[in-house]
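Reviewers asked in the last cycle whether our approach scales beyond single polypeptides. To address this, we selected a multi-component target totalling 644 residues and predicted its structure end to end. The input consisted of the following lines:
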Amino acid sequence: MICIFVTGGTFDKTYDEIQGKLSFGDTHLPEMLRLGRSHVDVNVRTLMMIDSLEMTDADREVVVRNCRQCAESCIVITHGTDTMVETAAALAHGVAGKTIVLTGAMIPYAFGSSDGLFNLGSALSLVQVLPPGVYIAMNGRHFEWNKVRKNRQTGVFESIF
Amino acid sequence: MICIFVTGGTFDKTYDEIQGKLSFGDTHLPEMLRLGRSHVDVNVRTLMMIDSLEMTDADREVVVRNCRQCAESCIVITHGTDTMVETAAALAHGVAGKTIVLTGAMIPYAFGSSDGLFNLGSALSLVQVLPPGVYIAMNGRHFEWNKVRKNRQTGVFESIF
Amino acid sequence: MICIFVTGGTFDKTYDEIQGKLSFGDTHLPEMLRLGRSHVDVNVRTLMMIDSLEMTDADREVVVRNCRQCAESCIVITHGTDTMVETAAALAHGVAGKTIVLTGAMIPYAFGSSDGLFNLGSALSLVQVLPPGVYIAMNGRHFEWNKVRKNRQTGVFESIF
Amino acid sequence: MICIFVTGGTFDKTYDEIQGKLSFGDTHLPEMLRLGRSHVDVNVRTLMMIDSLEMTDADREVVVRNCRQCAESCIVITHGTDTMVETAAALAHGVAGKTIVLTGAMIPYAFGSSDGLFNLGSALSLVQVLPPGVYIAMNGRHFEWNKVRKNRQTGVFESIF
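The resulting structure, written as structure tokens, was:
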């Protein structure tokens, strides 16, 4: 059994047609798993639904505590890309003995042209095979939590040495 | 560097609007990798573009030979689901020392509602971490080549013991 | 109130993922009207769900009778493109005093890249403004029933003089 | 020949994946006409690319002047929904003898679930059959410029008497 914690981010943004702007509603995770015809046993729980630029230390502590306390030892977290690396670091310091893979999207899933489904397939597969640790899965690649940064000019995650 | 061999299958079927039926054109792989914002170094080569129900032993031998002769030791193969297990067996007997992951789709990528992008993310990630061997990645899960079958009633790949 | 009669055609084809081929299920009309945020009062009725190449004279008579007998004087018909002109001719001879607009699609709506939504917007608007008669609405254009043919090489409807 | 003037609005909003917010790039009109397999002769010109809440009197005057001066007597205008009625009024006072249809979308076309293609089919058909005047085509319906308002609670255009 794999636990999927939803925290929001671009992944789950939708378009509010009355206000004419981006907003958050319910997560698209169940719909995406259905689309992917996933037959993995998962437990999807929404912890928060926020832009990762607005994620506070308290929010991050909620993520860490949930990862520590959940029964599952394989965890996928959907997260905004801007501060994904910070949350990965908090998890590395606060959770032991579990395989945690963070992923997200550059384009909302609700847009037809999203990378979200690709990234979800990636994260869900990696969490089943990687040894305990905290990882980021983006752009078809994966990185240990302390060997990656998001390049804000290109939007691409890249290795740091 | 990862090699992606394209063989056709539902994954790459399109709709021929003049004939009013399904057909094959060019592979959608490059477009899918772009959509997934993949930054993995890949070498995409189309070996054939056929329905896997029509794949002959000679076709299968082409797949095996290409996997054996290519420079890359990590290989993803897109393949129709109906005979994916047969091709996996041929590869297991004919190629040594490489990690080969076969994947496909239940719905053509050209349809908005395809599982193809999810499966591609899955296969491309698994091929980077699994030890040498031949695997099938479908439904968010992966199987060794000789421990899986496609359930034709449900369309789902499942473990055999 | 506008009556929409569904007869099948490419418009409503779906992909049967177990059989791996095109098939017909329920019509996509209600979903398409929702997507278009249509606020037109419509009455959607499925008369048949077939490829128009298989439409018989008896089928065509069913369409004519329903158009004659329905309470509405504005009627949209979704229809396969291959014999749309033949059905239009049958309607012109069999129904008087009503505005009937036939439309269809070159690509199934279930495919992301369909022209169906565009054509539906077109047909639904035209039926509200054209005088009684039988018309075909395709490719952003509309034609009187006896001044049009489908060019089978290009898939485009064009005027005949 | 029909002239299509693009002014922006939700219709043409895209998602800027580096900034993580909605923005405007090039218009999607040519792609939409291709998708709809439109064979109508059109002349697409982008006058501005703005949210209609930010449209000034000077912007509106640009729209009016272009409609007055263009050679075509059939004009479609894509426009944000919030002030579409104001621009329609300006056109009614400033342009004579032409058929002008304004349309827009509640969801950006770049989102898979947009009403834009439906509305474009609608507007492009109506402009070919309605007598000279200024109209708004939304929700499968059309209204004369002075008999309509946008209900901001529901996002739906409705008749006023």
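The CA atoms of residues 64 and 91 of chain C lie 5 Å apart. We regard this as preliminary and will revisit it once experimental data from Aim 1 are available.
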